Amino acid sequence: MITLQTHLFKEAEIPYDGTPLAPHWIYRKFNLLGDALVAFVGPAKVDLDHMVDLEDVKQNAPIYSPKMLHFLGEWFIDSLETGILLQHLFVGNVYQRLWERGGRDLSRKGNDLFYDQRKMSVSIATRSPVSVLFHMGINIETEGTPIPTSGLKELWIDPWDLASEVFEKFQQDIQGFKKARVKVLSR
C-alpha cells in the first residue's frame, strides 16, 4: 500500500503546461522519491498536444487559468483503476474542505468541482510505464479563462491553508486504509 510523502512548494510559482504529468517529475523537481503528492501555485496553460484527457482533445478544449493551486501526485502502483479511485478520494476531500469553509453553492460532477455553476477545477489520472500520475488544478484567479469559471479568491480561501488541510485529510485516509487492511482476521 502507499506510503505518501507530501510537500507544499511555496517558494516560487511554477507554470503548469501538462508536462509535469510525467514519471519521476516530482523526484526531479522536489527530491521526493517514491509515492508523493506536491502542491504548488502557478498559471495553467495546457495545449492540446500535452493533453491526456481525450474528451478535451476531441472537444478542442485546452486548459487556461491565470493562477491555480496545483496538486500533482505519483503513485508507484500498477493499477490505473486504483489510481482513479485515489483521484476520486482526493477530489472528494477537496470538495469536503471547500464545502466546510462555506462553499454552499459548490457542486461536484465526477472529478470536476463547480461553484455557482462555474467550473472551479480540472483533474486527471493517467498511467506511465512505472506509475500512476494525478493532477488537480483549482482556480485561484479566473480572469481570461475560456469558459465561465470560479476560484478560491472569490471564496476568500487561502490556497496554502486549503492544501495543508487536504494533505492532512488525505494522509489520514491512506493510514486508515492501511489499518483496515491489516486489522482484519482472514478465515
Note down, in words, how this protein is organized.
The chain has 187 residues and is an alpha+beta fold. It has one domain (5-182): Bira Bifunctional Protein, Domain 2 (BirA Bifunctional Protein, domain 2, 2-Layer Sandwich). Helix content is 30%, strand content 30%. It is built from four helices and eight strands; from the N terminus they run E-H-E-H-E-H-E-E-E-E-E-H. The strands form two sheets. Strands 1-2-3-8-7 form a five-stranded mixed β-sheet, covered by helices on one side. A three-stranded antiparallel β-sheet has the order 4-5-6, covered by helices on one side. Helix 3 crosses helix 4 (159-182). The two termini are 21 Å apart.
Primary descriptors:
BirA Bifunctional Protein, domain 2, 5-stranded mixed sheet, 30% strand, 187 residues, alpha+beta, 30% helix
